[in-house]
TrEMBL record:
Name of the molecule in the record: S-adenosyl-methyltransferase
Organism: Pedobacter yonginense
Record's compositionally biased regions (Basic and acidic residues): 17-33
Keywords linked to the UniProt accession: Coiled coil, Membrane, Transmembrane, Transmembrane helix
Ranges that cross the membrane: 56-78
Length: 140
């Protein structure tokens, strides 16, 4: 048996101590004030004063406006890309429809197909070529 393994088994044999949870203390009013006082100190006495915040307000509003314009621009760009993809799919479908209709028209306009269609109406295909009618100018 491994020497290190024996040491681990000896340690595992002993009973495990039970852990007890430490009781929690409720925060006192002073501790609550300390967290609030940091924020109030920061705005009143620290880096940002009321005058500095008031002076920076137009710039912050401008930055917020720029952020909204940026978000709107990206929204419109995504919508345009979606619309372009949709229109490309529609163009592809219409192109296939055009090609299939053109092929059908070419097939139906063949002489044999036209003859089959008009045969039901009682019209026959000419066997002899057409005759040319000549009218003299003095007969007219």
């Amino acid at each position: 048996m491994n020497r290190f393994r024996a040491d681990i088994e000896e340690e595992e044999i002993g009973p495990e101590p039970e852990l007890k949870a430490a009781p929690k203390k409720p925060k006192t009013a002073e501790e609550k004030m300390d967290s609030n006082s940091f924020i109030s100190k920061l705005f009143n006495d620290g880096l940002v004063t009321k005058d500095a915040a008031t002076n920076a307000l137009p710039f912050l509003c401008f930055l917020a406006l720029l952020g909204m314009v940026y978000i709107a621009n990206s929204h419109f760009a995504v919508n345009n890309v979606r619309r372009i993809d949709k229109l490309n799919k529609e163009v592809k479908e219409l192109r296939w429809e055009y090609k299939s209709l053109k092929a059908d028209l070419m097939f139906k306009s063949k002489l044999t197909e036209v003859a089959k269609k008009v045969d039901t109406l009682g019209i026959k295909e000419l066997i002899e070529p057409p005759k040319k009618i000549i009218v003299k100018s003095d007969e007219y």
